[in-house]
Design brief:
Largest sheet of chain A: 8 strands, antiparallel
Helix content of chain A: 25-40%
Shape of chain A: globular
Order of helices and strands of chain B: EHEHEHEHHEHEHHEEHEEEHEHEHEEH
CATH architecture of the largest domain in chain A: 3-Layer(aba) Sandwich
Structural class of chain A: alpha+beta
Strand content of chain B: 15-25%
Number of strands of chain B: 15
Strand order of the largest sheet of chain A: 11-10-16-7-8-15-12-13
CATH topology of the largest domain in chain B: TIM Barrel
Largest sheet of chain B: 9 strands, mixed
Distance between the termini of chain B: 24 Å
Helix content of chain B: 25-40%
CATH superfamily of the largest domain in chain A: P-loop containing nucleotide triphosphate hydrolases
Number of domains of chain B: 2
Largest interface: A-B, 28 and 49 residues
Radius of gyration of chain B: 21 Å
Oligomer: heterodimer
Number of helices of chain B: 13
Number of strands of chain A: 33
Strand content of chain A: 25-35%
CATH class of the largest domain in chain B: Alpha Beta
């Protein structure tokens, strides 16, 4: 056990975390130069495209120190976005230390702080690493100062490296061995293993990623999930190289996987403790946070026949993304679906894309909502995250919506633009700090609803990408809320309804009407799109029908070709939803989620 | 189906020159005429006995009149020898105006052709020049007179509109000239940019700008209203007949899923839910038949669904529409018909769903509501 180190890398987006991970993997020889391609751990297409890590991946690095000692270094990769703090916490609970990566040019960012606090909560050894020292704009002295002042860490022992060129990588390995403590734990105590991730394999069932704290688990053992009592017989255990590698056992301090023919997906719950059925541990491990959804939206299959397939996909997906919560939902316009809770808007987008790409689902998502509170005249209190359950306006005494404290760190020159954005989004109670010369931290209290609606995109655009952003829930505050309905040819599209602050209602309704007008192609019939509060129309747009599409000639030689075109178009229409006689493309529902100001 | 009379189409794949907008298959190497004709005779023999009675024959192209009149005469004789042609059959031949000499016209009538389809395209020399046609407006008028004198009872005129640079007034003049000639039948086609044509190149390069959708619609509506007020019956998107009896019986077969046999390169045939087509290349066509093989290059057996899609696709192009009983009783179909009627795109009369003139303009989209 003295030769095991369990660690994680935490960093702000784009400070080079995946590159460093790849470099470590390459250095220990898990993969040769020829096979090496960038960002090995970001296996999902979507992660590569966006350049962010969404899912934690784990890899065991066999490392031989200068004195000849063989070490097993378990690198547990963590997601790098504010929405995924829950995934970070699961990964961190399995570690004894972290590498805190700071970009030598950009310095400490808002998110670095958030991650650092998470690591401190778990009492982890923290090794600051200044990365990208090869950049011409690297300013190591300034970054050291920021580490001292803003993070309160001892910058004297900060490591310097360039994951890109490989400079300083040996020192990183040395520090991992010397500064991160080996795991503690007793192999012959009753088994406690923490589930921090899981994947579903259609042939082998659930592959559980876990960290063993005490005890030993071997193939043939009977294990029990402590939260629900589910019992399975272990088929295989092993560690993560770049692929699964079988082992005789997993013992205290080790990180690896368990396969136990777990076909019932819902049995595996991330955060749960695995123990032996016959000799159970007295109590489960502590320290896992339940994911707390902040943003809500419904998912529907485009074709209602696909509901069953979507239901199965959701179940499998959930296993791999513990942060997603959902329950059944139904809509008059869109049929049966699921109401889902997400950590944030990015999480929502990722769930959507992964369901489509990895699980081949064609889905429609409704406008995201937060959870509102309504206090009724009869004394009842209602929590509503779905506009469908908006109470009768006459019965409402008062309403509240969730507020967050936002923290934005920007170069000073963007101050004006960011202030305007925050005030436009109903931000109040501004505060400013100057963490270092030329940089400013802006705090506002802001309704969460304003943030989930493309705030981050807007911030990036007004700060040309220089703004870093974080937020914390601070409680509920009174608000004047109304429900806006969207009607297409006088038919209410319940999936497009939304609850908004009264002052924003007209503008949002107009925006949606305009967006739909842009996204719904001209059709055979005139289409009238309206936004309404109750019976009052507050916004309207019209799509005129197209007048001509017929081809001039259609004789013997044209018919087959024309029919094939018709069949092809019909295929394309599977991604359309019919509202009355109007075909609404899926992208129209998605476009409504995003505003387009300016 | 089997007892329905069939249509016979023969494709003459030769043109002395190609017009800039045409993507029909043709070659200008007239030395291939003899071996092609030989191959055609072999193909006719191959189909002997496979179709019952033909009540239409249509010689199209290409330009059938690049062939000598004697050959056009021989062609009909061979057809009559191998197939049963009904005595009152409609026998059409396509011709370029400049080919209709007095002699040619008389020989065609004598050979048994009853209907002449003249590719006049326009009575405006500027438009004809743009279309790279090799005849003048005068040639067009003359050809109609000559054909009449020779005894053609049914004359059809092909015209083209929405030509770049053409104004509504110019098109109106061409239409008025056509009406003055009192043809039994008129086909008025909107100029369409086809793939791999010189016209397409000019459009892509920006040298030529096609009229926009709004303009196309105006051309179409002008055409329909002028011809209707002159007594023409608008029976298909691009086709007009002086009386209901004068519609092109042959072309109707395409739109009604009646059986037809297509001979010659690239020709399509249809019978009992089977459709098949010949090789496109003249040389391959000749070679195959010389070797005693069939010229068929491909085919398909239409499923019930596909037949249904085609019925919708073709039916909404024709004035007589689709019988109401054809539509299933689903709520979707009912709602679609109701919506189309409310939008003024169809009318329901005498148990049929009929496209209005505006409906014909969007005939390509209407099937989607039922699929």
């Amino acid at each position: 056990m003295q030769q095991i180190r369990n660690f994680s890398i935490i960093a702000h987006i784009d400070h080079g975390k995946s590159t460093l991970a790849d470099r470590l993997i390459q250095r220990v020889g898990l993969i040769d130069e020829r096979q090496f391609h960038d960002q090995l751990l970001d296996t999902m297409d979507i992660e590569r495209e966006r350049g962010i890590t969404i899912k934690s991946q784990t890899v065991a690095l066999p490392y031989r120190a200068d004195d000849g000692t063989e070490y097993e270094l378990n690198l547990i990769d963590t997601p790098g976005h504010v929405d995924f703090s829950y995934e970070v916490s699961r990964a961190l609970a399995s570690c004894e230390g972290v590498l805190l990566l700071v970009d030598a040019a950009q310095g400490v960012e808002a998110q670095t702080l958030g991650n650092l606090y998470a690591a401190m909560e778990h009492n982890l050894e923290i090794i600051p690493v200044i990365n990208k020292i090869d950049l011409p704009s690297a300013d190591i002295d300034r970054v050291r100062e920021e580490i001292e002042v803003e993070l309160g860490l001892d910058a004297e022992h900060a490591l310097l490296c360039s994951a890109k060129t490989g400079a300083g990588i040996d020192e990183v390995f040395k520090a991992i061995i010397e500064r991160i403590p080996p795991p503690t734990g007793t192999p012959d105590k009753p088994l406690t293993a923490l589930i921090f991730d899981a994947q579903y394999d259609q042939f082998r069932g659930t592959i559980v990623s876990c960290r063993v704290f005490d005890g030993t688990v071997r193939p043939g053992d009977t294990i029990r999930f402590m939260s629900n009592g589910a019992v399975y017989r272990v088929e295989e255990v092993g560690v993560f190289r770049l692929r699964l590698e079988k082992r005789q056992e997993l013992s205290a301090g080790e990180v690896g996987y368990i396969i136990a023919g777990i076909k019932n997906i819902s049995d595996t719950r991330v955060g749960d403790t695995i123990t032996h059925h016959e000799h159970p541990a007295p109590e489960p491990l502590r320290g896992f946070k339940e994911p707390k959804p902040m943003v809500f939206s419904s998912i529907y299959p485009i074709a209602s026949d696909d509901y069953q397939s979507l239901a199965e996909a959701m179940e499998k997906y959930k296993l791999n993304d513990a942060a997603l919560v959902y329950q059944k939902d139904s809509s008059a316009a869109l049929g049966q679906g699921f109401r889902c809770g997400f950590l944030g808007l990015l999480h929502l987008e990722i769930v959507q894309e992964r369901l489509e790409r990895e699980y081949n689902q064609s889905i429609i998502m409704t406008a995201p909502s937060v959870q509102y509170k309504f206090f009724l005249k009869n004394g009842q209190e209602l929590s509503v995250d779905n506009p469908h359950y908006y109470p009768d306006p006459g019965s409402i005494q008062r309403a509240e919506e969730p507020y967050v404290k936002i923290s934005i760190i920007i170069p000073e020159r963007y101050m004006g633009a960011v202030m305007k954005l925050c005030v436009d989004r109903r931000g109040v109670n501004p505060h400013f700090h100057y963490p270092s010369p030329g940089r400013i931290e802006v705090n506002f209290d802001m309704p969460l609803a304003e943030i989930i609606y493309d705030f981050y995109d807007r911030l990036k655009s007004v700060t040309q990408g220089y703004g870093s952003f974080d937020y914390d829930f601070i409680g509920y505050r009174e608000s004047d809320l109304v429900k806006v309905d969207i009607l297409v040819n006088h038919e209410k599209v319940d999936a497009l309804s939304l609850i908004v602050h009264r002052d924003n209602a007209r503008q949002r309704a107009l925006q949606i009407c305009e967006r739909l007008k842009e996204e719904i192609p001209r059709q055979l019939f005139k289409i009238i799109i309206q936004g309404a509060i109750g019976g009052t129309i507050i916004a309207r747009s019209t799509i005129n029908p197209y007048r001509k599409d017929v081809t001039a000639k259609c004789y013997g030689g044209d018919i087959t070709r024309k029919r094939k075109l018709l069949e092809k178009q019909k295929e394309g229409k599977k991604r359309m939803k019919m509202i009355g006689a109007v075909e609404i493309p899926q992208r129209a529902f998605i476009a409504v989620l995003k505003s387009k100001e300016d | 189906m089997a007892h329905q009379n069939a249509g016979l189409y023969i494709h003459v794949p030769f043109c002395t020159a190609k017009c800039c907008y045409c993507d029909f298959y043709s070659v200008s190497d007239l030395t291939l005429c003899d071996p092609w004709f030989d191959a055609l005779c072999r193909e006719i023999a191959l189909y002997r006995g496979q179709f019952s009675t033909f009540d239409t024959v249509y010689i199209g192209g290409g330009t059938p009149t690049v062939l000598k009149p004697e050959r056009l005469d021989a062609m009909l004789q061979i057809v009559s020898r191998h197939f049963t042609i009904q005595s009152d059959a409609e026998i059409t031949i396509e011709a370029n105006p400049q080919d209709i000499t007095v002699e040619m016209a008389h020989q065609l009538v004598a050979a048994g052709y009853t209907r002449l389809s003249l590719g006049i395209q326009s009575f405006d020399d500027t438009v004809l020049a743009f279309l790279t046609r090799r005849h003048t407006a005068r040639d067009g008028v003359k050809a109609v007179y000559t054909a009449r004198e020779a005894g053609f009872k049914t004359i059809s005129i092909d015209l083209v509109y929405a030509v770049p640079g053409q104004t509504r007034a110019q098109w109106h003049k061409t239409l008025v000239q056509a009406i003055a000639l009192a043809p039994e039948h008129l086909s008025c086609y909107q100029l369409t940019v086809k793939d791999k044509t010189p016209l397409q190149q000019r459009v892509v390069s920006g040298a030529v700008v096609m009229p926009d959708a709004e303009m196309e619609e105006l051309f179409f509506m002008d055409t329909v209203s002028l011809l209707a007020s002159s007594g023409y019956h608008h029976y298909e998107v691009s086709n007009f007949a002086r009386t209901a009896e004068l519609v092109s019986r042959h072309n109707q077969k395409y739109w009604l899923h009646a059986p037809y046999l297509g001979l010659g390169p690239a020709a399509h045939s249809f019978q009992d839910a089977m459709r098949w087509w010949n090789v496109t290349s003249v040389k391959a066509y000749i070679e195959r038949l010389q070797n005693g093989d069939s010229a068929v290059a491909g085919g398909e057996k239409l499923t019930h669904e596909q037949l249904r899609a085609e019925r919708l696709m073709l039916g909404f192009r024709t004035r007589c529409g689709i019988e109401h009983s054809f539509f299933d009783r689903s709520q979707k179909s009912h709602a679609a018909i109701r919506h189309l009627a409310a939008a003024g795109l169809v009318r329901v009369r005498n148990g049929r769903v009929l496209p209005t003139t505006r409906g014909m303009l969007v005939a390509d989209s209407m099937p989607h509501l039922f699929l």
